[in-house]
Amino acid sequence: MTSTIVLRNARLIDGIADQPRERVSVVIKGERITAITNDDGPSGPGVEVIDCAGKTIMPGLIDTHVHSTLVSDIDLSLFLATGVTTARDVGGRLDKVLTLRERLNKGEVLGPRLFVCGPLLDGGHKTFPKGAFGEILDTVPTVGDAPGKINSLIDAGVDGIKLYFGMTPDIMEACLNTVDKRVPVTGHIGATTALEAVNLGIDGLEHMWISPYNNICPVEMRFGLELSMMSSKFPKVTFKGWEEADLQGPGTQQLFDVMAEKQVKMGTTLDLLWVDNIGIEAALEDTDRIYIPQSGLEHQRALAKVTKVGKEWDVHTGYPPGNGKKALEKQKEAVRILHEKGGVIVGGTDCCGIAYPPPGFALWREAELLADAIGDMAALKAITASAASALRKEDELGSIAPGRYADILILGKDPSKDVRNLRSLETVFRGGVAHDPNALLAAYPARDFDNMG
Ligand SMILES: [Zn+2]
């Protein structure tokens, strides 16, 4: 028998309305929401009532930019522990990420619903680095290779396609034409500008820092293929380009006008500059550090050998801390301008690809940065309903309405007043199944905060 759960008398942030509603009850049957009422809802035998007086409920969070195969199974529980009930993997080895999706969606691994893109698709004849990053890359060598590569991914069952930095406009056009809107396509791009990609019909762009950069920075500061993202010069060059960018200028305005018109999703990943935002001393005080996954720590240890940093080794970004702060302020401003034009802002984090902030906690940080730019409620939409639209799952996920999956958070404090209240998370429902975030965190092999060497 399918049991009924009633979340009674809550403040409701449904992911759609601009204001919370008071004294609302939400009825869950099995894995779905069946009703929303303005009274106490059903009661009686077979009905479990959870009194939510004084509490706020909202949709489970969605992180649209993760690299889930780069961490271990146990690390994926951090998503649920922070209320992230859905994640999109935007770069993973195809067989690994398909298997992980199946195990997560069957409940064999505790974590979010997973949507996958398969590998990062670069363009041209590429040789890839060895190791974890090389493993998640693939390439479309020529225009003629696009149909074979794209169709094989779609036939394998990917939920989306992710295009990468070195892909030139001719190959990108061939890829987009082959996809023909069957699945959403997003891009972390460089050799093709954002404006070109948007005009070719791409559905989303990743990283406010990177994908729109060549349309936003001064013309003489554009990066070309010779400036690899992996280069130590990349942050320095692009931070200066952002600092000097004219956000009222024609490059930015034209791009954002077209993005708004075509409703292209802007995946922000502002959290890549979280350490720049708060400074290294505050990062060292951040207790979220204890949840950095083992694979992230290994990566940071290798980085520390090159950068020769001390106690901040686990959060260090590889360039002088704080260098990106002004650039981040400009990126927030760009988010605000796009939002005000009616563009679609989508929160993603790159977590599991970056060590810090850790999975789940990274989306909380992203929400804080987005709230600075566009306000608390709009920031919450960016990590719920708008994020669902980037997956083309807005009728299933990201909002609280009859028929949607019962992916629901119960919070002690109202995050529409301050997104930092996401930390008052008390219960996480994924598909109608309740999880206790504190129990999940207690079961995680976290580091000892006083002994982080
Ligand atoms: Zn990424």
Number of contiguous helices: 17
Protein structure class: alpha/beta
As a whole number of angstroms, the C-alpha radius of gyration is 21 Å
**CATH H-tier superfamily:** Metal-dependent hydrolases
| CATH architecture descriptor name | Alpha-Beta Barrel
The number of E-state strands comes to: 18
Walk me through this protein's architecture.
With 453 residues, the protein is an alpha/beta fold. It has one domain: TIM Barrel, CATH 3.20.20.140. 35% of the residues lie in helices and 19% in strands. It contains 17 helices and 18 strands. The strands form four sheets. Strands 1, 2, 3, 4, 5, 16, 17 and 18 form an eight-stranded mixed beta sheet that branches. It has a five-stranded parallel beta sheet with strand order 11-12-13-14-15. Helix 1 (73-81) packs antiparallel against helix 17 (437-443). The longest helix is centred in the C-terminal third of the chain and has 16 residues, at 325-340. The protein is globular and about 70 Å long. The termini are far apart. 52% of the residues are buried. Residues 65, 67, 90-91, 350, 353 line the site of zinc ion.
